[in-house]
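Notes continue from the previous slide.

Worked example: a multi-chain complex. Inputs as given:
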Amino acid sequence: MNNKQELPWDNPRFRNWVAVARACHSVERALAGALAPLDLKPAQLDVLMNLYRHPGMSQHDLARKLLVGRSNITMLLPQLENRDLLRRESDGKDKRVLRLSLTPSGEALLMDALKVYMGLLDKVMEQSTPAECDLLGEQMRRVAEALKVE
Amino acid sequence: MNNKQELPWDNPRFRNWVAVARACHSVERALAGALAPLDLKPAQLDVLMNLYRHPGMSQHDLARKLLVGRSNITMLLPQLENRDLLRRESDGKDKRVLRLSLTPSGEALLMDALKVYMGLLDKVMEQSTPAECDLLGEQMRRVAEALKVE
DNA sequence: TGTTTATTGTTCATGCTTGAACTATCATGT
DNA sequence: ACATGATAGTTCAAGCATGAACAATAAACA
């Protein structure tokens, strides 16, 4: 009756997910270092990326996209707004919401940051074929989906 | 000359890594919620897991394993020690280091927490075959390795 | 031996994230 | 129109993680 027989480390899901978490953590920290010269942090880059793809977003929608509290957005945006990287314009129809969009300099900084990010990912995923890479993304999208609605 | 042609979102590595990061974030938050009844946080679970597998570790080694600063460990351990989940015993040969090990109740709590963790992973990775799962882990170990030595 | 350098763990100030309470605005239903 | 409830954003206190500076100890070497 050795309980090691049922240890999670013998389970593929567990063992491999631990690797996912570690890799994610490593990349996050490496990204933070690589973005430092741009005076940008990963969380701020996430904001810029989402505003680039979804201009006119509200803060609430942005918070949901980033899986983060609304108050976090409130604390995050003024820094970027003061650096003239994004605009917050109040919606004409609903005076509660603020519509977010990148300024040209915000877009320019985003492009620089994305080059940095891509450089890091190219180095880090060098050994994965495009097919493996797509399979990876597919699994991860399923994982995120499984946690979405609940 | 549309710069969208070279946007990172068209690049498999970028697009799929974004999915990895999002999934990781989701699982982390779901795990935090699932562990709440045990009054345990993901970072604390990481500590218990590592001490279970590597009893007698020093705080420095633990910090490196967890990809975290030493001061973080210093702030993290007293909570767990006060709950009688782990012991810190000074090394006889080197009076600087503290040897860490789980107490029986620490091990018991770890087992409970692992059941919770496994339950979450089973739900979340339900759609991935063992082979896919292993490939996933293999890629992630390569990613972590690529960031290791530098 | 004595001096210099490295390493372990701690302390502390800083910044980030969270969740709860709050205000202002809109939507619903009577 | 009016009451009720829902939603967007803010404020605030609390908890975590970080990195720099520090004390104690060990290692390297003259």
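Summary box: Helices of chain B lie at 12-35, 42-53, 59-66, 70-82, 104-124, 130-146. The mean pLDDT of chain B is 94.
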